[in-house]
Write a structure and sequence with these properties.
The structure is a single chain. The chain has 98 residues and is mostly helical. It contains 5 helices and no strands.
Amino acid sequence: MDRFSASEALDSQIAYYKDELKYFIGVVTKQVIERHLIEPLPAKILLPLVIAGLTDDEVHCIAAEPTAILEQRSFLEARKGILETGREVLRKAVRKIH
């Protein structure tokens, strides 16, 4: 009977420490992430005063879209204009028929 009780107590303690180890690893991981990754972020974020001190070229480099995107936007806007014109012509033609 004592051997069975000791075995149950040992199994219980092993399960407890297994859970505690997972908890400990989670807490340490969270602290490391907060201390080394999140805490220094405010120094790296672009603050309004920092942006105000940038030259126009620096702001353009940060905020500008890639040339390929600009070309695609121009193409799509031109295509949209053509389609809208075609839609208006079609509407006028349909009105004349009715």
